[in-house]
Amino acid sequence: MLPPEQPPLPALTRAECEFVDSYLEVLDLLGRINPARGTHTYGALRAAQALVGRAEALKDALTLMHMRGESEVHAATLAEALRVLDGERRARRLTMPPAAMS
Cβ(25)–Cβ(18) under 8 Å? Predict the structure, then answer.
């Protein structure tokens, strides 16, 4: 049985694609660094080191959008893209886990 087909990504400019991709990569790295969810310092260290480069890519995507005259972020369209790319699950890793019941 095949998994359900994902909805298509909305039409995005190349810079918007880079923006969304870089943002999700930053989320993933922050999720790996989250002290409430992590288990090893080495993995968190590696994620922190990679975060610098991904934050730079995020800045570059936004700079390109601004330079091209894309002065507005189309939040609804970008949110749809984030949902298709599993952004909600990825963002949950940034939160505190539920408290353990005693």
Answer: no
Query: Can you tell me the distance from the alpha carbon of 42 to that of 26, in angstroms, rounded to the nearest whole number?
Result: 18
Tokens describing residue 58: 């995020």
Q: Is 23 helix (H, G, I), strand (E, B) or coil?
A: helix
Q: H or E segment at 68?
A: none
Q: Are 31 and 94 in contact (CB under 8 A)?
A: yes
Q: Is 19 helix (H, G, I), strand (E, B) or coil?
A: helix
What averages of pLDDT result for each successive group of 10 residues across the chain (102 residues)? 78 92 96 90 95 96 93 92 94 88 63
Tell me the whole-structure pTM to 2 decimals: 0.86
How many residues would you count in the chain? 102
